[in-house]
Amino acid sequence: MTAVETPPPAYDLPEPTLRIDGRHASAQEGQTYESHNPATEELVTTVAAAQPADVDAAVTAARHQFEQGEWSQLSGSDRGKILTRAAQLIEQDAHTLAALEAVEMGKLYHDSVNGDIPAAAEVFRHFAGWADKLTGSTALLPDMGPQRRFGYTIRQPLGVIGAITPWNNPALIAAWKLAPALAAGCTAVVKPAEDASLSTLRLAELLTQAGIPDGVVNVVPGLGAVAGAALAAHPGIDKISFTGSPRVGKQIQSLAGDTFRKVTLELGGKSAQLIFEDADLEAAMPWIAMGNFYHQGQVCAAGTRVLVHESRVDEVVAGLVAAAESAQIGDPFLSTSTMGSIVNRRQLDQIMHYIDLGISEGAELVTGGSRLTRSGYFVEPTVFRGTNDLTIAREEIFGPVATVISFATTEEAVRLANQTRFGLNAMVYTGDLARAVTVTEQLRVGTVWINGWGVPDPALPWGGRGGSGIGRELGRAGIEADTEEKTVHVGL
Ligand code: NAD
Fold first, then answer.
1. Cα–Cα distance between 423 and 442 in angstroms, integer?
2. Residue 256 has what pLDDT?
3. Residue 244 CA, ligand 1 centroid: distance in Å
4. Is 404 touching ligand 1 by the criterion CB < 6 Å?
5. Which are the contacts of 66, defined by CB distance < 8 A and separation ≥ 6?
6. What region, left, alpha or beta, does residue 22 occupy, with left being phi > 0 and alpha being psi -120 to 50 degrees?
7. Do residues 425 and 445 touch, judged by C-beta distance below 8 A?
């Protein structure tokens, strides 16, 4: 198929303003920042940049709604109906949400419209089902003298959730944070990433249309060091839920320590794909390649340490090279593109820096390694052969750079996989179920995919160990983390 340069489909930008208590507002002193299209370097729009006083107003609105508004008082069943409506509206609006993500951060429109956005709708649908099922537990207690006793627990909404999100899956990760919080009866203030705030602003409009009262969801776009830091430090929030880099995650954790508020940190990864000698490579190769190159490698769960049994290394390298060299890199709106652009200049420079480091530290560059000579921030998918101690195998690059590393035994594969400060996820490819289960038990990570790779599912928890974070989102653990469990002792 010949790629035809088509203009982006028509879509409306949301108001690029703050959204506080259901109203659009400018930032204090009219502060703004520019959002650029990384595929063309052209200006998309100018967005209001929240200042500490704006964040304070948003937290005040969320706190007021939580304490005196109707949302936390609604029955779980009624909240569930509204969240189900939100899921439907997100699906109906998928075209606009996906276009906003494509134009702001270079993600493929068709990946977003068929992937992230329906997945975000499913997150709302899933947690809508939880809204009337948040139960505690009961226990019969020993008598105390003549008094008979029993006890029970109730789950109550935690309060105001401060959500800080990254740019790589903006609507989906906002959904991960908002849907369980809203189902539990909490209110929220969201600080989206400056490189991709429009889909979150649009999402907030849809939540209002679904019937979520003003003040429940407030959005404060702005710079991380200003708006994000003000939100993380604000005494009026009960929990900070952060997804982003380990560098900022550390700062958030120390702020949370001072205030004793709850904190969830979903940080980066440097995940391993373990490919054993009995793997069905015909079935596995598309997953292994996608785990490196999907969304230009800008995925926390990317499996960029490709650990391969020595007998299969050449086949896996050939498979990755074929995937890399057949990639159609270009306009994120084109249906024929298989890779879009890198999110911004800084991220592109970081990727090129790591590629240079790989070469200077002695890794073998098998394919790729160059930036495309055209406007926009495009880089070739890149494959190295190397070892686990290279910088490119130790640090999160957040770009389409795979390092293939050979192992001889299962024990060595597990040792190499665990030899990292991260612990987000791992992928295991083998035809031997017993080995898959044993290796899975030995991997120090939050999630393992066996014979596949993909996005987290709202039915199951997601989160990391070690340098990949603290706490869990999604699943039962995710919604329970947005509640307080209160214990009641009853004497009869
Ligand atoms: P980032 O840490 O630079 O920014 C994340 C968010 O934090 C943004 O909204 C940013 O504005 C804000 N921020 C920046 N400085 C801040 C400060 N001082 N105080 C408070 N907030 C601040 O990360 P990014 O570049 O947007 O995202 C990429 C990172 O996110 C990668 O490390 C990736 O692995 C990670 N990530 C993790 C997951 C996961 O589920 N574990 C999912 C997606 C992305």
1. 12
2. 75
3. 2
4. no
5. 72, 157, 159, 160, 186, 187
6. left
7. yes
Q: Find the 266 Cα to ligand 1 centroid distance in Å.
A: 9
The rounded Å distance from CA 4 to ligand 1 centre is: 35
CA of 248, closest atom in ligand 1: 2
Could you give the residue numbers annotated as active site? 266, 300
User: 313: CA distance to ligand 1 center in Å?
Assistant: 34
Ligand 1 atom nearest the C-alpha of 165 is 9
Tell me how far CA of residue 220 lies from CA of 48, 187, 383, 436, in angstroms: 8, 14, 39, 44
Query: Is the separation of the CB atoms in 383 and 402 below 8 Å?
Result: yes
CA distance 19 to 456: 29
Is the CB of 197 inside a 6 Å radius of any atom of ligand 1? no
Distances (CA, A) of 118 to 94, 98, 452, 456: 7, 10, 20, 13
Q: Read out DSSP for 31-45?
A: -EEEEE-TTT--EEE
240 membership: H or E segment, kind and range: strand 239-243
10-residue mean pLDDT series, the chain (492 residues): 54 94 97 98 98 98 98 97 98 97 97 97 98 96 96 98 98 98 98 98 98 98 97 96 96 83 95 98 98 98 98 98 98 97 98 98 98 96 98 98 98 98 98 98 98 94 96 97 98 94
Residue 425 φ/ψ, nearest 5 degrees: -155, 170
Q: Which residues contact 345 (CB under 8 A, 6 or more apart)?
A: 38, 377
C-beta 224 within 6 A of ligand 1: yes
172 lines ligand 1 (CB under 6 A): no
Nearby residues of 402 by Cβ (< 8 Å), 6 or more positions away = 292, 293, 304, 306, 320, 381, 382, 383, 384
CB 361 within 8 A of CB 387: no
Q: Which two tokens stand for residue 351?
A: 């990727």
Find out whether the beta carbon of 265 lies less than 6 Å from any atom of ligand 1.
no
Q: Is the CB of 267 under 6 A from ligand 1?
A: yes
**Residue pair 403/271 in contact by the 8 Å Cβ criterion:** no
Distance CA 363, CA 384 (A): 6
